TrEMBL record:
This is ABC transporter, transmembrane region. Keywords: ATP-binding, Cell membrane, Hydrolase, Membrane, Nucleotide-binding, Transmembrane, Transmembrane helix, Transport. CDD domains: ABC_6TM_exporter_like. Residues 51-344 form the ABC transmembrane type-1 domain. Residues 378-612 form the ABC transporter domain. The lineage of its organism: Bacteria, Pseudomonadati, Pseudomonadota, Gammaproteobacteria, Chromatiales. It comes from the Bacteria.
Amino acid sequence: MSSGNFHGPYLRLQDFVAYSDRYILLTSTTHSVQALARLLRYAKGYRRRILAATACSIINKLFDIAPEILIGVAIDVVVNKEDSFVARLNFTTPEEQILVLAILTFFIWVGESLFEYLYKILWRNLAQRLQADLRQDTYEHVQQLDMSFFESKSSGHLVAIMNDDVNQLERFLDGGANALIQVGVAVIAVGAVFFILSPLIALLAFTPVPLIIWGAFFFQRKAGPLYNDVREKVGDLASRLGNNLSGIATIKSFTAEAREAERLKAVSETYVEANRRAIRVSSAFIPVIRMAILVGFLATFTIGGMMALQGSLNVGAYGVLVFLTQRLLWPLTGLAEVIDLFERAMASTRRILDLLEVTVEVQDVSNRSLATPVRGEVHFQGVSFRYASSGAGVENINLSVPGGSTLALVGATGSGKSTLIKLLLRFYDPHEGQVCIDGQPVREISLYSLRQAIGLVSQEVYLFEGSIRNNIAYGRPDADEESIIKAAITAEAWNFIHALPQGLDTPVGERGVRLSGGQRQRLSLARALIKNPPILVLDEATSAVDNETEAAIQRSLQRIGHDRTVIMIAHRLSTIVYADRIVVIHQGRVIEHGTHAELLEANGRYAAQWRVQTGLAKAEDTLLG
Ligand SMILES: Nc1ncnc2c1ncn2[C@@H]1O[C@H](COP(=O)(O)OP(=O)(O)OP(=O)(O)O)[C@@H](O)[C@H]1O
């Protein structure tokens, strides 16, 4: 990441969001080498394993080129017999010399195989460990991020980072890293042999090398942005697929299948097009490299041949040079592909590490717990908050909810009721004022203790794939059967669960699709109740159930509400008439408060809405909506 773009070592949320319109940090100009340095910093704990794997790759490559040298030495034995190079090592007869070479070849091949086995095991295990750690760390970090982060980010893009990008890095470590190291070793080792045998031929054979390396880097610069584009398009594709599959019922009900298939096709085609552009550049490079290498090969072949004929070059050395040019040629042909893999992996690394470095704004700095027993007094003291993206929010809210009492929040849709709940749970921190529980500011309570004390039944019910039992026990995984049933009874869910053939073990399906809306809502209520929280928050918790069930739930809630604080949001006023206090929110402010009777007497917005809901007036007469 270029330091000019961002402030300090960490990425601020705003920067991240601002840059994520197209794809996360597509515009980041960080060079791949910097990304590699960042990865190595992250992988500090793996340094020894990386060094061991690198050493095995190097040794394997040295063993790999040794047989070509031995062939040259063998030719030398055959041609020069008693005057050969090996003869100088005290092996006088040519037969003896060939035998020595054969034994040496045997050990070299065994060594090559052994180190191939070792480097493969080491790199592959490293790839597995690192990808698993990166994915787990990223997931754990993403879980800590603020709600505003998730509102600005599509889950498809996050999944693409945690799956595709992590896999991309795994692929590089699996094979690419070894290939890159071995290309380097081949060039250096072969170069050294060339210079020892004939500096003139070495110079000629190596003339195209700078051109090839320049070409590879030129390609890297060209291909980098193209691969970023490919990554962006795959993110778009994942996002559209995810959205469409979750919204399949809506698509069907609007008979929009053809339109959606068309939209998916369009995104899919842009992905193909992005890949095509990248492929065009990558495919052109390999033939160009091969031509350049051919020049080096022909130089060795021709000039070396001439020199051998004139006797100025040993025949065995000529053989070594010709064979070794092959060893130089093929790895360099693969250089483009390896750099290609490296470039992709580093683009992925950047995205993963950028995500890992997004700072958490709602900091869990305190390790203080709420003093027990929690009385459940809730205070909003001059609380103001605005959402960055919409500017909507709440303004100067002052509310006191005594422990054990029931507070109802009412108001038109979008007036700010759920926002108050989010501030209580510290999904966001207020810009002004503070929220306190039992006199302790929520900022000074650990998030664990705070959220453990609150049972939330939110407007949108989310059930996890699994059984009814697992879903109810989500709030208390160690809950026994009796507590699960008790919570289900209080939430008026037991009758329907009991009637199911598999009872508590009935699978709910993905997001609870196999249950009705009202059943899902009751399970979510039971899930909150099983925590036995001192503060229970019900955001439209009974909006999807029939009137009779709703009345039964109300009775249960009144019963269990005696020893806990209940904050409820409801549009149907009949469900909150018994509340100790009713607060009317309008455009982010408190405009009326009191008991049901007091508010009727005040004859304000609440009274007008009450008349509409009880059939005494028309909807236009009120603003509560
Ligand atoms: N994540 C968000 N980002 C930006 N604006 C938001 C966000 N969530 C809510 N808002 C806006 O803040 C205002 C208050 O929303 P809030 O959800 O608190 O209303 P509400 O009173 O609970 O409404 P409803 O009764 O429909 O649930 C609305 O204008 C809404 O558009």
